TrEMBL record:
SMART domains: PKS_KS. This is Beta-ketoacyl synthase. CDD domains: KAS_I_II. InterPro entries: Beta-ketoacyl_synthase, Ketoacyl_synth_AS, Ketoacyl_synth_C, Ketoacyl_synth_N, PKS_Beta-ketoAc_synthase_dom, Thiolase-like.
Length: 424
């Protein structure tokens, strides 16, 4: 009987027993899935800070949670906590969480409001030196900032809140971070180090500085009006991604342990593939080799053939180069059949949630499996002849057993997951 809980390589099967999601579409799995499959957009004009003079003035911000939105660690923590509460509750795990925490968080640094406060405390109105900032920071007024702006703070607070075991792991692998958090949880369970893992991706970093940085890289869409039409994955007239915020949490368990305690299994993480690309800080290698390798490694890890993938949850940012390279990678691995495999990008509705994206998209992939419904890709009115894919433009009902979920990050940090309804 225990053999049923092992994969083809003899490793423990990794089951998902709980999920939680927060995006600009709303709070909770049900609210998000209803909006997503209905094709509603959460992208809107930014209201939390002035945008006059900016080329991009829209985002998929989460404005309904009580947190200081101009301090990324605080909002990221609040988003992560909300998603984790839902996931742990669904998994029905009593008391402290029995495994480790793996959490993807955005890079943490002081933003302009905090820097301005330090400058004012230092009594400096002109050029500010590092010595000025140190002098201001040494006052008792800023004691809490020491913890707030440390990379591991969000993980420490979430670990304390849910009672996870061992040292909480914070990670940031650019836009593949959320998928990497899941991969680390899968690998830890497979090694037998634990029977459960809480894996989270969170990002609440839509602020002036991050918006301007991405704008300077020419990465963002500048088609501000109407906001919901800006994100156009795979369309010929795509012009960049739209920033978004959100979080997703997945409770992973050794399938044997989950079954023994009577847990409801939502699906399985069968395969993980990861491949780094040192070609450029923002651009993909022009031959697509690292993306191809990440997809192929995920299939090999899952023990599946290319023709066993039913649909693809695309990274699909809406940038001219990324969408083209993702199509190249999918066609290279899945072959000509890829032209008829449904592919969809939820970034057309929630924006690019950055370090949270891989986790959110894994949750949506599992919901696709559970409901047999592939969400649409909005704004695909002008197909790109260079991307010959079956882009889903209206929610499509079909039997789905396996989903390939792609996450490709700046700096060539590529992670792909294979999720399934049942063991291979």
């Amino acid at each position: 009987m225990m053999r049923a809980y092992r994969d083809a390589k003899g490793r423990p099967l990794v089951a998902v027993t709980g999920m939680g999601v927060v995006t600009s579409l709303g709070q909770g799995v049900a609210e998000n899935w209803s909006a997503l499959t209905a094709g509603r957009s959460g992208i809107h004009a930014i209201t939390r800070f002035p945008t006059e003079g900016l080329r991009t003035r829209i985002a998929g911000t989460v404005d309904f949670l009580k947190a200081e939105p101009m301090v990324a660690p605080l909002l990221s923590e609040r988003l992560a906590a909300a998603a984790a509460e839902e996931a742990v509750a669904e998994a029905r795990i009593p008391g402290d969480f029995p495994g480790a925490l793996f959490i993807a968080v955005p890079p943490v640094e002081m933003e302009w409001p905090q820097r301005q406060a330090l400058a004012e405390a230092a009594g400096v109105s002109g050029d500010i030196t590092y010595a000025d900032l140190l002098r201001a920071a040494s006052t008792r007024r800023f004691d809490d900032w020491h913890d707030l702006f440390i990379f591991g703070t969000v993980a420490d607070r979430i670990a304390d809140r849910f009672g996870t075991k061992g040292s909480p792991i914070s990670l940031s692998t650019a836009c593949s971070s959320g998928a990497t958090a899941i991969q680390l949880g899968v690998e830890a369970i497979r090694r037998g180090e634990m029977t459960a893992a809480l894996c989270i991706g969170t990002d609440g970093s839509v602020n002036p500085e991050s918006l301007i940085r991405f704008s300077l890289l020419s990465a963002l869409s500048t088609q501000n009006d109407p906001p919901e039409a800006a994100s156009k994955p795979f369309a010929r007239n795509r012009d960049g991604f739209v920033m978004g915020e959100g979080a997703a949490a997945l409770v992973l368990e050794d399938a044997a342990a989950a079954s023994a305690r009577g847990a409801r299994i939502l699906g399985y993480v069968l395969g993980c593939g990861e491949k780094g690309d040192g070609f450029h800080r923002t651009r993909s290698s022009p031959d697509g080799a690292p993306i191809i390798a990440a997809i192929q490694d995920a299939l090999d890890d899952a023990g599946l053939a290319p023709d066993e993938i039913d649909t693809v949850n695309a990274h699909g940012t809406g940038t001219p180069e990324n969408d083209k390279m993702e199509a190249l990678g999918c066609l290279a691995v899945l072959g000509e059949r890829m032209r008829s495999v449904p592919i969809s990008s939820n970034k057309s509705m929630i924006g690019h949630t950055l370090t949270a994206a891989g986790a959110i998209e894994a949750a949506f992939s599992l919901l696709t499996i559970a409901t047999g419904r592939v969400p649409p890709t909005l704004n695909y009115a002008v197909p790109d002849p260079a991307i010959p894919l079956d882009v889903v433009t209206a929610a499509r009902d079909l039997p789905v057993r396996t989903v390939l979920s792609n996450s490709f990050g700046f700096g060539g940090q590529n992670t792909c997951l294979v999720l399934a309804a049942e063991p291979a």
